[in-house]
Description:
The protein is an alpha+beta fold and 315 residues long. Helices cover 58% and strands 10% of the residues. The protein is built from 11 helices and 6 strands. Strand 4 and strand 5 (160-166) form a beta hairpin. Helix 1 (2-9) packs antiparallel against helix 11, helix 2 runs antiparallel to helix 10 (233-270) and helix 9 (169-226) packs antiparallel against helix 10. The longest helix is centred in the middle third of the chain and has 58 residues, at 169-226. The two termini are 27 Å apart.
Amino acid sequence: MWGVILAFSIPREYTTRVKLAPEVSVKGTSGNMGALAAMAGINLSNNIGEDALSPELYPDIVTSTPFLLELFPVYVTDLKGEIHTTLYEYMDDYQRKPWWDAIISLPKNMIGWGVSLFKDKNITREGGLDPFRLTPDEADVLDELGQRIGVSIDKKTGVTTISVTMQDPLVSAMVTDTVMDNLQEYITRYRTNKARHDLAFTEKLYKDAKKEYFRVQQQYARYTDGNQHVALKSYLIEQERLQNEMSLAYGIYNQVAQQLQVAKAKVQEITPVYTVVQPATVPLKPSKPGRMMILAGTVFLAALISMFWIGFVKS
Length: 315
């Protein structure tokens, strides 16, 4: 009897798993990109293929406060179509708990209620979430959400498995898909951060070099047009000076243009590409609780207690 009550009092949980196969990075540059970099006087052989973000850090990333806070405003819908809300509100308002949880948490709630009487109730939240100072409710939701998300790495194959457990199968699938996308975006931002900054700097140099080349070119053209059929030595010297200045500006402009193409290629080269081996699908069966195991365990425990009672108490 108690086994049945225990088994059906625990809310059902559904787990969704996705598997990602990362692109195998090869140290060194490709032939075309390496040749282009060599033309621009840049050596990329020590930059491509190095990855400071180890896959072993992925579990810490997905359970970090900034990563989890990005999931709070994500909208979710339950399988029955009765709930349409943010993930934070779903975790805070719609999570079912076994009946004994209210009994166990009663002393803690009473203490919290008593402490709240002496606290300042005028503290309000303005401007949305503040990762530096979370409210107690936000901290509780953050902790529970972190426990429901898991990441494991197969060291032999490099396959990353992301799992999310929720009390609704559709919510579980939706959150898993979002976690997968956010993790890929996080890794991409991390790996390409320096390359994108270098690209922005090179683009600025390119615009400045182009502007300077066009300025010197126009200056040379105006001087030549205004001094046609002039054979003075001073004119020839000034014309040669302007021509050399234009050639120098063009050389810088041409070199920076090549560096710009290399910078663009570098960003593309180091951007990670993931293959989704197993996409997120709505689970059909609950992952827990194992009701049959609970029933079997309670029956076995009852049998042991009965044997102990008969063998030692009544004898």
